[in-house]
Backbone:
C-alpha cells in the first residue's frame, strides 16, 4: 500500500530515498520544493499539500523539526485534524518532548487513528546508508506494521514499549552521543593547542578502544575542519534542551549534559548554528582565546 512521507530535510530526504529505492510506493510533501523534486526524480509521487498525502496514504511518516510544525501540519486543534487522522497510522520520527508525544498519541487515537513514535539514532551518513537505529513505541500491532515499513532505512528497530518510552530512550542515547562528541572535540582542541600532529591524533583515536563509527567520522571533521552538516549545532542544542527538561521533571542530575548545553549554546551564539555538531570546538577555541587574553597572552 502507498505510504506518505512529510519532511524532507537533512535526515528526511535520504530516509525517503531509501524507501523509494526499496520499492515502497511513496507520496511525499515538503514545505520547500527542492527536496520534493529529488524524490520525484527517484520515483516518488509528489503531493500538492498535506491533505493529498493523507488522502492517498494510510501510513504517514512525519520527519519534521518541531512540535509546533507537527501541530500545524496535522491541523491539531482544528476540524481538519480529525479528518486527517481517522483511519490513518501516524509515524512520528522527529525528536520531541516525551510528554508532547504522549499527548499527540491520545489526540490521534481519539480522532480514530493509530500512532507510533519512532525516533532514530544516527545522523545524515547513517541515514544515507540505511543504517539508522529506530526506537519504536505504541500499540503492538501498529509497531509491527511500522517495523516492516522502516526496514529499508534502518539497520535495527528496537521496540521500547508504550509511548513515550521510545523518545525517552532516544534522549538517553543522546546524552551519550552529545557528551562523547563534545569530549572528542575537547581532546582535538587540546592536541591542536599542544602542537601535536593532528593526523597522528586521528590515527590514535581511530585505533584505540574508544573508537566507534561516530568517533571516526567526527575526528575526521575536527582534523580537516570540515563542518558540513550531518547533525547541526542548533538541532543538537534543541535535543540537549529536551533531555535537560526531561531530567529536571524527573529530578535527575545531568552535570555533563549541562556543561555541553553551555558549549553548544555558545557555538550557536557565535553564528555556527547550521554547522555540524563537531563545530562545538569553536566554543572551546573562543574560551581558550578569552582565557589567554585574561592572562595577557
Residues:
Amino acid at each position: 500500500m502507498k505510504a506518505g512521507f512529510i519532511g524532507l530535510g537533512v535526515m528526511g530526504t535520504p530516509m525517503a530515498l531509501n524507501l523509494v529505492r526499496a520499492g515502497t510506493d511513496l507520496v511525499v510533501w515538503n514545505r520547500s520544493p527542492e527536496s520534493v523534486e529529488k524524490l520525484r526524480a527517484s520515483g516518488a509521487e509528489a503531493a500538492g499539500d498535506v491533505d493529498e498525502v493523507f488522502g492517498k496514504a494510510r501510513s504517514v511518516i512525519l520527519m519534521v523539526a518541531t512540535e509546533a510544525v507537527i501541530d500545524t501540519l496535522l491541523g491539531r486543534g482544528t476540524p481538519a485534524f480529525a479528518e486527517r487522522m481517522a483511519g490513518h497510522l501516524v509515524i512520528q520520527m522527529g525528536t520531541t518532548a516525551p510528554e508532547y508525544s504522549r499527548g499527540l498519541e491520545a489526540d490521534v487515537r481519539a480522532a480514530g487513528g493509530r500512532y507510533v513514535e519512532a525516533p532514530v539514532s544516527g545522523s545524515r551518513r547513517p541515514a544515507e546508508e540505511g543504517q539508522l537505529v529506530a526506537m519504536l513505541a505504541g500499540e503492538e500491532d501498529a509497531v509491527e506494521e511500522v517495523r516492516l515499513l522502516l526496514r529499508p532505512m534502518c539497520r535495527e528497530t528496537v521496540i521500547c514499549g508504550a509511548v513515550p518510552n521510545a523518545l525517552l530512550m532516544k534522549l538517553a542515547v543522546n546524552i551519550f552521543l552529545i557528551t562523547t562528541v563534545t569530549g572528542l572535540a575537547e581532546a582535538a582542541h587540546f592536541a591542536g593547542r599542544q602542537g601535536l600532529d593532528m593526523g597522528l591524533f586521528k590515527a590514535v583515536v581511530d585505533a584505540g578502544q574508544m573508537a566507534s563509527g561516530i568517533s571516526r567520522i567526527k575526528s575526521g571533521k575536527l582534523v580537516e575542519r570540515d563542518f558540513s552538516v550531518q547533525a547541526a549545532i542548533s538541532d543538537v542544542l534543541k535535543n540537549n534542551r529536551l533531555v535537560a527538561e526531561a531530567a529536571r521533571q524527573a529530578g535527575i542530575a545531568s552535570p555533563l549534559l549541562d556543561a555541553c548545553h553551555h558549549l553548544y549554546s555558545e557555538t550557536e551564539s557565535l553564528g555556527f548554528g547550521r554547522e555540524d555538531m563537531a563545530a562545538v570546538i569553536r566554543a572551546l577555541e573562543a574560551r581558550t582565546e578569552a582565557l589567554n587574553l585574561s592572562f595577557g597572552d
Notes: Strands lie at 3-6, 26-29, 45-46, 59-62, 89-92, 114-117, 120-121, 132-138, 154-159. The chain has a mean pLDDT of 95.
